[in-house]
């Protein structure tokens, strides 16, 4: 959820965090702890709210953060618009999707929800939504799927 500077508009989601255009983030501590205890459930209020802050740095909460080139903007809009419409369609039809249906509310929520999955379930995102994974990896300058793969290998080695 974000507050574009005006009054806070409650929605169906319980408020777990809030990012305002003044670059303030308010988090419900229990929700923060839940996000760290269940690190791969696809929900993380910290990633979600900070994505809103990054999104709003150009003055618009529109799901498109500041990008380094025209080409990157073109690619971002093309990939995210398609994934957003797919999510909206899934939400309307009640179909399960990797991204939480809350991301179908608008483009800003889409970016925040996609960011949660990018960090929380990167292998699934890379497999099921490779184009979206790629633009987020480019934006965040991280290959979270490779990190997860290394982490899993290390964990299985530690067990044996
Ligand atoms: Zn949000």
Protein model, in words:
- By secondary structure, this protein is mainly alpha-helical.
- The chain has a single domain (2-159), classed as Collagenase (Catalytic Domain).
- The protein has seven helices and three strands, in the order βββααααααα.
- It has helices at 29-37, 45-56, 70-93, 107-120, 122-128, 130-140, 144-159, and strands spanning 2-3, 17-20, 25-27.
- Helix 2 packs across helix 4 and helix 5 packs across helix 7.
- The longest helix has 24 residues, at 70-93.
- The radius of gyration is 16 Å and the shape is globular.
- The N and C termini lie far apart (43 Å).
- The model is unreliable at 6-12 (pLDDT under 50).
- Bound molecules: zinc ion (ZN).
- Zinc ion is lined by residues 1-2, 48, 52, 109, 112.
What attributes characterize this protein structure?
160 residues; Collagenase (Catalytic Domain); 7 helices; single chain; globular; three-stranded mixed sheet; mainly alpha; binds zinc ion
Helices and strands in order, then pairings?
Elements: E1 2-3, E2 17-20, E3 25-27, H1 29-37, H2 45-56, H3 70-93, H4 107-120, H5 122-128, H6 130-140, H7 144-159
Parallel strand pairs: 1-2
Antiparallel strand pairs: 2-3
Helix pairs in contact: 2-4, 4-5, 5-6, 5-7
Bound molecules: zinc ion (ZN).
